[in-house]
Amino acid sequence: IGEALKLNRSLEKLKLGHNDIGPEGSIAIGEALKTNTSLQILNLLANNIGTEDGIAIGEALKTNTSLQILNLHGNNIGTGGGIAIGEALKTNTSLQILNLHGNNIGTG
What we know:
It is built from 4 helices and 4 strands. By secondary structure, it is of the alpha/beta class. The protein has a single domain, classed as Alpha-Beta Horseshoe (Leucine-rich repeat, LRR (right-handed beta-alpha superhelix)). It has a 4-stranded parallel beta sheet with strand order 1-2-3-4, with no helix packed on it. Helix 2 links the parallel strand 1 and strand 2. The longest helix is centred in the middle third of the chain and has 13 residues. The protein is globular, with a radius of gyration of 12 Å. The model has no long low-confidence stretch (mean pLDDT 96).
C-alpha cells in the first residue's frame, strides 16, 4: 500500500483500522505521505504502530500538504512519536483533525 500511495494521485480517503500493519507498514505509509498529494483522510486506528513508526509519520507530516484528518487512536506511538508529530504540527498547514487518543504519549 505504501508504494501505491507514492504513485497514486486520486485516492482521497484510506481506512486501515484494525489491520495490524505494524512497523513495516506504518513506516512505508509514512514514506508515501511525504510525496502523496491526494490523500485527505487516513485512518490507522489500532494498528500496532510504535514509537519509531510514529516518528516516521511525524517526519512525513512536515512535508505533506494534503492530509486533513489523521486517526492514530489506539496505537502505542509513545512519547517519542508524540514529540515528532508535535514538531511536525509546527510547519504542517493542512492537518485539521488529529486523533492521538490511547497512544501512551505521556505529559511531555
